[in-house]
Every structure is written in structure tokens, then in C-alpha cells.
Task: structure prediction
Amino acid sequence: MTEGPNCVTVQSFRDQVGLHFAFFNLKPQSSASPISAMPASSPDICTPQSPKIDTSLLTIAQSFYDDELWAASCLRARSFNDFRPDTFGLQDHLKYLAEREFEALKERVSGKRVSFRKVSCINASLPESYISNISNELCSACKYVLRGEDRIVVATLDLNQCLGLPDEIVGMKPEVVGSDITRAYLSNVCVAKELQRNGLAYALLEKAKIVARDWGITDLYVHVAVNNEAAKKLYIKSGFVYESDEPTWQARFLDRPRRLLLWTDLSQQPSLTP
Result:
């Protein structure tokens, strides 16, 4: 996928909360800053070379251990930033960005970040033996071990139980006291560029809904760049609808494309099995 919904912009590595985007990572435009990525094209659109994957080998689950979180952080660093291959010190810089996200992600998942009641990193992974035929670089960057098997994180997102995300439009539902308990946001949605258009982002969203329901979430939100048609189509397909949009002045102040806030009512959707 591409996070044109795939990829969003910016602020992520720049502020202390780490990445905050809910977009996808396909073909981001060149960035004005060495540590920020511009919005990308779309989540479920990819190059014709993208291979079809064997979904029977796919695992989608919450991640708790450092090696899994590190693999997810590495995927985010390579997905949300677009550098020329001949950029001097490219690998060192990507490692630096991954380390920044890794530390922020560990804090969020461990419950040490103020204003976040609960955060879950949800990853999709495939066996290294399968991915090695597709991308050696992806294997070396995003590997972890699960029950003795080397696996590669190929897609990731965060589920955040909170009133709102830093520098983002805040949802209005539910309109009751204690809404920080029943409101959640998706962020940092990305899929390895080598495997886009395999339905990985949609599968991640469905898994996130299952986890959210287990937490008692009734109202789930996601932010998407206004010009990210592919991402909007993905979220609409998953049951999200428009609630509000970011003021133009705020987008200009934060130096990024204007965002839309999309919402889905989990209390009205049929139960899903894990």
C-alpha cells in the first residue's frame, strides 16, 4: 500500500511523540527537510512489479517486545521518508530516524506518555524465507524472531486510546464524560513499498477494530491528507466517514497538507473474529 494515505508528512520524527500519521507510504514526494516526508500517493496502489503474497503465511498481531517494535520503527523510517539512493550517509540517517521512533514507540506502548491511556503497535509479518525472494533490504531492516522463526514486519500501525493526538484535529464523539475511554485514533499506518496492493492495510485496519472493541472503544478515528485519494478510498471501504477537516491556517502553520478527520462507529458494526 501506499500511504499516500500511506504516507503522511512530517511532524512525526520532529516531535517527541514520534510519528503521528495515519497515512500510507507510497511514493512520497521529496521532502523539504532531511527528516520529514511529504504526503505520499495512495495506500493500495503500487507499481506493477509488486508481487502477490501468500496470505496463509501472514500474521497480524499486537507487538510488545523490543525486537518487534524495532522492526516496526525501521519500516516506518523507510516508509515515511523519501531519500535519493545516493544520499550521503543514508543508512546512518535512516537508523537515526528509526531509533527516534523506537524510543517514542516504547514509551507510548508502555504507558509512559501523558494523555495516552493505552497504545498498541499492530504489525503484519511474513517469514524471512518468503520475503528474501522479494527484497533483501527489507529483510535486513525489519526482521525479528517469533518462536524461533525469523519474520519480517511488512505493515504496521498504532492504535491510540486518547482524547486526541498532538497537532491533529480532535474527534467530537462520543459526546459524553469519559470519552477518553471510548475514543481511539489510528496512526502511523504504513506498508512496505515492495508489497503494496496486497490488501495489507485493510487487514491491519480490521485487526485494529478487533483490538479497539476489546478495549471498549466505540468511536474510532483516523486522519488523512485531503489530497490522498487512495487513502480516503481505503478508509471509506473500511467503514469510515467524514467528520471534519483541518483549518487551512493550521496546515500552513505545521507546513503540511491539510488533513481530514474520518470516523467510524464501532458500536454499530458487527463483531469480527480475530
Observations:
- Confidence is low (pLDDT under 50) at residues 1-48.
